Amino acid sequence: MSVILVTGGTGTLGRLVVERLRAGGHEVRVLSRHAEPYAVDLREGGPGLDAAVTGVDTVVHCASSPRGGDERAAAHLIAAARRAGVAHLVFISIVGVDRVPYPYYRAKLAVEKQVAESGLGWTVLRATQFHDLLVQAFQVLAKVPVMLLPARVSDQPVAVGKVADRLAELAVGAPAGRVDDVGGPEVRTAESLARAFLKASGRRCAVVNVPLWGAAYRAFRSGGHLAPERAVGKGTFEDYLATRVRR
């Protein structure tokens, strides 16, 4: 069995990837800022990163932050992987990073380019947003009496477990380049998803759709972040809410 390093291995997606790979009999190292023995801040790099990748066959790169630093972190990881002779680098990205001019998406696209030009064997998987990310957003938006939503924007939330399944499968396979996107089973308006959340959580809140402006909003409104032709799984947003959200 291979030795696999999962960056961001304690996060929402990474921990599930770790579980699946270990269940398959692989030796898995977990890298995150606070997970010993491989507690490394990828944005800083350093000797701890070299120790983490030494003897590793495959790296699954799940670590990411909307607050910035992803490109610097990827540069450190790729350099260390080269030095260690890593054979395969798997990167999880987001559907629409090449169509939606949103800053975090642009950073993800830049990392995709770094991975493709790394000189390593590589695989990139893009997925739509996870159910839990929408719940986190709705929890914040519902703190006031009126929930404001971007008008005419839809989403296609996917179960994080489905994405973890696919990443684990890719990690034990050969480098495949850019593979087919993964999206949730339904494309839903932001309003319908928000109302489902309010119903499941027992919250009372008016919902108002607000037209916005800018290139990123236009791209989201036109569905640049969706992949309806790549819908996977059967778990709907209501299914997720039934098990994760309490009144």
Tell me briefly what this model is.
The chain is an alpha/beta fold and 247 residues long.
Explained architecture:
The protein is α/β, with parallel strands linked by helices and 247 residues long. The protein has a single domain (3-244), classed as NAD(P)-binding Rossmann-like Domain (Rossmann fold), CATH 3.40.50.720. The protein is 39% helix and 18% strand. The protein is built from nine helices and ten strands. It has helices at 14-23, 47-53, 70-84, 103-116, 131-141, 160-171, 190-201, 215-221, 237-244; strands at residues 3-7, 27-31, 58-61, 88-94, 121-127, 146-150, 154-155, 177-178, 188-189, 206-210. The strands form three sheets. The chain has a six-stranded parallel sheet with strand order 2-1-3-4-5-8, sandwiched between helices. The chain has a two-stranded parallel ribbon with strand order 6-10.
Name the descriptors.
10 strands; alpha/beta; 247 residues; Ergot_Alk_Oxidoreductase; NAD(P)-bd_dom; Rossmann fold; 39% helix; NAD(P)-bd_dom_sf
Per the CATH scheme, the topology name is Rossmann fold
Order of helices and strands: EHEHEHEHEHEEHEEHEHH
Number of strands: 10
CATH architecture heading: 3-Layer(aba) Sandwich
Considering DSSP H and I runs of 4 or more, what fraction of the residues is helical? 25-40%
Strand content is 15-25%
Please list the strands of the largest sheet in the order they lie side by side: 2-1-3-4-5-8
Amino-to-carboxy terminus distance: 45 Å
**CA-based gyration radius:** 19 Å
The count of domains is 1
Largest sheet: 6 strands, parallel
**Helix/sheet category:** alpha/beta
Q: Helix count?
A: 9
**Bulk shape:** globular
**CATH top level class name:** Alpha Beta
Question: Quaternary arrangement of the chains shown?
Answer: single chain
Uncertain regions spanning at least 5 consecutive residues? none
